[in-house]
Records
---
Amino acid sequence: MLGNFSYYNPTKLYFGDESLKFLKDELKGYGPVVMLNYGSGSVKRNGIYDQVVAILKEAGKTIVENPGVMTNPTLEKLREGVKIARENNIDLILALGGGSVCDYSKAVAASVFYEGDYWDKFWLKQEQPDAGQKLLPVGCVLTMAGTGSEMNAGTVITDAEHTFKAGHVFDSRLMPKFSILNPKFTMTVPDNQMKAGIYDIMNHIMEQYFSDFDDNTSDYIAEGLMRSVITSSRIAVKNSQDYEARSNIMWTATWALNTLIGLGKKEDWMVHMIGHSVGAWTHAPHGYALASVSMAYYQRALENGLPKFARFAHNVWDIPTEGKTERELAEAGLEALKDWMLEIGLPLTISELGATADMIPGITDTTVIYPAGYLDLTKEDVAEILKESL
Ligand code: NZQ
Ligand code: ZN
């Protein structure tokens, strides 16, 4: 552990098939008006909405509903939510849904009391709320595993007008105050979204793992989490109703992106940056967009990160080291990753998501570039990666 860091995570978690019963106690800590954000209707079809509304009513809360939070929530919808919150004197925002609804709820919570242009301040300039700014508390009842939004301060919002998807990680003030994780609630997630969520988890871990070469406890935790996702994903794609597998997937999702495994690490995040841009152009599920550019990206990263890729092959995929050079081992690890992605049915190209060669300049242009784990990419490199991903 060569880095310096502090660690603080204020989100209280309730996990398990009985976890919703704790919502009632949590609600006691907040005032009477609850803004209830949810998506396009899955929570009504599977009955989770009725269960949550019954608890809210029993607790004597006034419910201000804000349905229609779309997957990859838009700036337009954010503006709508901020207006509703401003008009209704909200005490608590309750997110009922997947990462999109959780992200969106944090975005509303940050923006309600900011008097200037919140899109510009938080998402374009990447600033934090000023010290004295009031923020609304957020709680989540999670219905889909993947993003880790239930225990982090990330908020990804899409400016649909400019085909630009912008992520902002707020400081710990915007982390959910509590999150309720009932794996049974994820059982009705459509297969494609479940698979997208699984790859999102795997890629969150990889984004943090593939950086630096020091011996770091965070990497050992990351390897354990990856092994768990791989094991459970193989079971869940065969039987999506396997509670044990779905509960492990839900739990690894939370730990994959609640900042723990990034401690003391430089981290990468360029698959996400390119993936966000692919997502804005194709409207593909977030995890699919990540999968579609991963192989081309990691082939390049491997050149500079051979020892870590070789370790990935052995410690995550159980590939024997004997008789292999470091490079052969590293390449075998990426091959194993690819085989697993094919096995669980993930897209390996952007063409499968509807992207065409003529979109590449636009996707490249809207990709935000950070100094990555093992690569310092230019826009030309991003365009090459996209071409190789066609
Ligand atoms: O609209 P509803 O009815 O909610 O349906 C959703 C949506 O269509 C459906 N769904 C969710 N739970 C369900 C269900 N359908 C049936 N039964 C259930 N129990 O699944 C679809 C996808 O949901 P969504 O919330 O969009 O998916 P996900 O959790 O993958 O969230 C994606 C968003 O999170 C952002 C992504 O960019 C994207 O905007 N991310 C947030 C991050 C963070 N906060 O740290 C990090 C991630 O890398 C990611 O960027
Ligand atoms: Zn992600």
---
Amino acid sequence: MNRILILFPLLSILYGCSQIPEPEPIAPLPSESQMNWHEMEFYMFVHFNMNTFTNLEWGFGDESPGLFNPTQLDCRQWARVASEAGMKGIILTAKHHDGFCLWPSRYTEHSVKNSPWKNGQGDVVRELADACREYGLKMGLYLSPWDRNHADYGSEKYITYYRNQVKELLTGYGEVFEFWLDGANGGTGYYGGANENRLVDRKTYYDWPATFQLIKDLQPDIIIFSDAGPDTRWVGNEAGWAGETNWCPLKRDEFWPGSPHYRQLTSGHEDGTHWVPTEIDVSIRPGWYYHPYEDHKVHSLPHLLDIYYHSLGRNGNLLLNFPVDKRGLIHEKDVEQVMKLAGTLKNDFNQNLVFKKKAEATNTRQNKRKYGAGKVLDGRKETYWSTDDGITSASLTIDLEEEVAFNRFLIQEYIRLGQRVKEFTVEAFSEGEWQEIASETTIGYKRILRLPTTRASKIRLNINQAKACLLIYNLEVYNAPKVLTEPDISRDKEGTLSLAAADPEVNIFYTVDGSDPDQASTLYDEPFAVPGKLIVKAVAMDEASGLKSPVGTKEFDMAKSKWSVLLPSDDSEKSSRAIDDNPATSWTYPVEKFPAGTVVDLGEPLIINGISYLPDQSRWAKGIIEQYECYVSENGKNWGDPVIAGEFPNMLNSPVWQKVSFPEKRGRYLKIKVLKTVNEEKRVGFAEIGVLTR
Ligand code: FUL
């Protein structure tokens, strides 16, 4: 055959290919540094400096450097924990609002150089930089713009000071991956002894564009965090969640650090002008700084999993804070919890059930070899499925070959060319039928859905709306094991008992006779009444795997259905919170209002042999009782001598349940007279008051 005849079709195919347009980017787009930052996904925040030693969250600025003296500071321990938990970096509060510097800054005396730690020769930033290098982590730094120590704060001179510190930090310690600027700015402070209130115009005072430029000049690849970016933005809350709809694009020029419309940051803007993705900062305990009184409040595994899936699973990076303690170490309880989180995540994402399976799409851009549906399952970052230009809705079906169970769906857009998807659904094919199992909005860098466990032989992704043609680069499906933590056991004032498991798909078995529960015990179905004294033990079980949780145990005395608070008598609605058997609610009142004490009517005579007390459990707990007297009376008039008087131990640091016993006494009325509260506070507070009976 004529050579030309053979070559013609070949050449025309090749020519045709080169004519197929590549997908057009749709602005705004991430920079290369932002792409690297996206891939960091999960890293550690460390709040540690003067507040650690003063037990505060915000120091005034007049603290003596002499107070800073960690006994066992070990940044390598922080780095080890970060690395073992799968985090990629550590951001440290080099300077918080009180102005104390963790490095020996040339520009102030208010730093480690005047502390007893290492005789003033220490440098925490240096130690962290070394530890990060050793563990292959990146280091970031927090330099609070607000400085309650500095005499010049509020004037032009302070801006020079601030920028000098930027220079010190960004030239002296190697690569810094992120510079962290919080939004709190201006207010009362020490200010070099002025002790006054200083307000600044948060928008203009720092000349942010020039300050950001300085930062970038010193480290061009750095990511700057603030409410408004420019590179990554705050998510608008400190509770650990991003919006289900979450756009990386943001109308950035409408924001600045501390700007008032911060709620919009939770979801970004579909028509945003700049690429400013969310970073979700949240602490593993209620406080950012270490307080011994929060040792019992380190977040539970289910709470940490919620944080993970609601941040990283919603197109944001997770910055999980660890309040390093006075020793200079991450507390054992925090280490234990983050390791539980890491272990669970490892199992959740253990085996990708759709890796390299067959996929078909209702639309694929010409040049199927490059843009075919299978590209979402090939595990490669640089390949993606794309639809034709103008095609903004399409479906992609994955053939699993056989029925499999799954409950996690992970999807990623090829964001180098912009974030596009506005609406998508997921369907599962089982027993000849398609069933919708999720209906969602945005995807972005990464979206992870936790779904009810579903069996299917095919999975279909339907993208229903997007800003431009679709570019999906990764899709993974997993069957995460059940979360098996101790069931929550609670009983209300009326005596109705409820059990709850962290995972809705497990069974709970329980006993009320003190024996250990197992599969042969009673299966929990719904709340039921048990108003008497009892001990409840419960276990969560996954019947498929046979695995079970540790046993949860809770002891209850008589239900408080007949109880009322008689004194102080003016606000029964509020005072009833002290006897509602709900530890999360509390009641406080000023001591002077009723110095004689709190009187509770138990509704009927009981043989009492002790009391229980839970202090206010809110973050800023009020009126924690330290010294008390307790009386029991038949008629509420003749009280006689106290049945017990004493001190609840270590209440400042450990405000947990207290139980004290005394010789049995019959009575219907209980009086608690408060002799002293923690820090001599002029309020008395209760989350719960209870009695122990025979
Ligand atoms: C806030 C600060 O005021 C808190 O103390 C903490 O540092 C948090 C991460 O940022 O703006």
